[in-house]
Amino acid sequence: MRFAAVHKLSSYLMVGASLLALALSGEVEPWVIVATAIVGFLSYFFEPNEHALLRSRGFLIGWNAATLIVFGLTLLSAFQRDALTAGVRFLCFLVVNKLWNRRASRDYLQAYVVSFLMLVAGAALSSELGYAVCFLGYVVFSTWTLTLFHLRREMEENYLLKHSQDAESERVEVDRVLNSRRIVGGQFLLGTSLVSVGIFLVSVLLFFLIPRVGFGLFAQGGRRGR
């Protein structure tokens, strides 16, 4: 597969794992999960840099206005009801926003940060074993994604910043590299997956072997709850 295609696919898988973690918690409204999944999935087939409408100023203004409106509704809902659930809905909106506006590396990076916050929210809302599966998937996909993201950013900065005398020709050169099929292959994905799984297993082992001491140790009475 082309380098850019693998990077985009791994990015969406990373976001999908965090969204699935939220869905399995059962604490987020089904319509929020379904709407986020559908609208986010549709963005996969549209490249913002290749469509005039997605690059237009009106499109950006519309997203910015929608963000302000949703943020205001989130604050209102947080004061009236559960702040965590309201924050999760806002995160779902933000990740869709970034997926539709992934024009540069910073947009991808912001989507990764939002997906991590979604994963953390899923941990706070869920106590099911299925979350561990989502977490493992997120670890593998994030390893692919962050490695490819680093390579992509280095490519773009090397060509567009250090060799900016002829911007148009360098842009073509960047596109040629990103569309290359020789940079990333099956061995890369397999190798990084094995490293991720190994780190995950060692982390689980340490989690169960090393004693965990909290403030409850110094309080009267035993620990309560799961």
What topology emerges from the helices and strands here?
Elements lengths: L2 H23 L4 H14 L8 H4 L1 H24 L2 H18 L4 H21 L4 H31 L6 H12 L7 H24 L17
Describe the structure.
The protein is flat and about 45 Å long. It has 226 residues and is mainly α. α1 (3-25) runs antiparallel to α2, α4 runs antiparallel to α5 (83-100) and α7 packs antiparallel against α8 (167-178). The protein is built from nine helices and no strands. The protein has helices spanning 3-25, 30-43, 52-55, 57-80, 83-100, 105-125, 130-160, 167-178, 186-209.
Average of per-residue pLDDT values: 80
End-to-end separation = 45 Å
The SSE order reads: HHHHHHHHH
Name the helicity range: over 70%
Count of individual beta strands: 0
Broad shape: flat
Low-confidence stretches: 215-226
Strand content: under 5%
CA radius of gyration is 20 Å
Please work out how many helical segments DSSP would assign.
9
Most strands sheet: none
Name its key features.
0% strand; mainly alpha; flat; 226 residues; disordered C terminus
Give a concise summary.
This protein has 226 residues and is mostly helical.
